[in-house]
Amino acid sequence: MKLRLELCVISSILLTGLIVASLGTSTPKASAARLTSLLDRSPATAKLQYQHLRERATELGTEAIPEFKGVKASDRFPEVLLVNQDGQSLNFKTDLVSNRTTCFAMFYTRCTGSCPGTISKMLKIRESLTSQFGRDNIQFVCITLDPEHDSPETLRQYAESVDALGQPELADIHFCTGAPEDLELVRRALGMYDLDPEVDADRSQHAAMIVIGNDRYNRWASAPSGLPVEEIHETCLRIAGTTERQRFGLRLALDSGFKDDALADIEDAPMGFSTAAAAASEGSCCSKKDSADACCKDKAVEGACCSEKMEP
Asked: Is the pLDDT of residue 74 over 90?
C-alpha cells in the first residue's frame, strides 16, 4: 500500500513535468516582451503614454466628494487631554480628529531607533502635503510614548532640534504628551500597538507607522514610515483628497512613469509630488541617516526640510 502511494506521487510529479515541458517557455517570453514594451521610453511611446494619461486624468471628477454621513470610526475615540510643546491643551477627539485631516506618529525623544526616521518623514510630508492642501486643511501630531520624561519643554527642545518650528507657512505640527493612561487610550484608538502583548510592552519595539485620518470622509490608513516619502505622500492623498482627481491623479502619473508635471496643464491636477521627491533626494539634509539633532543643521543645504539656508 505504501509503495503504491509513493508510485502515485512520483507519477504525478513526472506528469506535471511533462505538461510544463510541452508548454515550453512561451509564457515567460511573453511576460518579458510585455515588460519590455511597458518600459520602452522612445519618444513615440512616451507621447502615446502621455495622451493616455491625459485621457484617464480627465475622466476623474473634479467635483467635491460628499462628506460621510453615519457612524464614524472616530466615534469610539477617547476625549482625553494632550499638551503640546507650547503648553497648549488639546482635546484629542475635538481638537485633533473631529472634522479634520490629521497625520499621527508616535515616538519618544530618547529613542535612537526608528523615531528619528519617522519624524523626518513627517516633516517631509508636512511640506509636500501643505503644498497640496494649504496650511489650514491638514495638521500633524507626534505623540510621545515616554510621558514620564517627555515634558512639554523637552518636546519643544526636540522639535527645535529637528527644525519643526518657526515655519508658519506650513501646516500646524504638535509634539504632544499627556497622562500615561490617556496616551495609552490614544495609542489603542489609532491602532498603533502590537498584537503580541510582550512585544507591545517593549517601548523600543513600537510600530514605526504614520497614521492619517480624514474624519469628514471617515477615511483612515496607516503606512510604515520606512516607505519612500513619495509613497507615503500618495497614501495621504488618497485619504485627504476631496475630489477623485486629487485622490487618484497622482497614481496615474506614477503608473505612466511621469511626475506631477505630466498633469500640470490639466485643471485641478494633484500637486506636491515634486516637493516630496525633493525632500527624499540626497541633497536634503533630512534624507541623511543622521541623528535627530543633526537634521537640518547643514548650513550649506537648502532642501525641502530646510526652507531657508541657515545663517552661518
From this structure: yes
Distance CA 77, CA 12 (A): 56
Best CA proximity match to 186, nearest among 85, 111, 101, 79: 79
Strand partners, 178: 82
The neighbour count for residue 278, using CB atoms within 10 Å, is 18
Percent of the chain exceeding pLDDT 70 equals: 65
Q: Average pLDDT, whole number, for the chain? A: 76
Residues pairing with 104 in the sheet: 141, 211
The answer to the question of residue 28 being in a domain is no
SS3 content of the chain, % helix, strand, coil (to 5): 50, 10, 40
Q: What is the pTM of this model?
A: 0.70
Largest CA distance in the chain: 85
Tens-place pLDDT, residues 249-283:
777 766 666 565 666 677 766 665 566 555 545 44
pLDDT confidence of residue 100: 95
Full domain range(s) for residue 152: 73-289
Q: Are 268 and 243 in contact (CB under 8 A)?
A: yes
Provide the CATH number for the domain around residue 182.
3.40.30.10
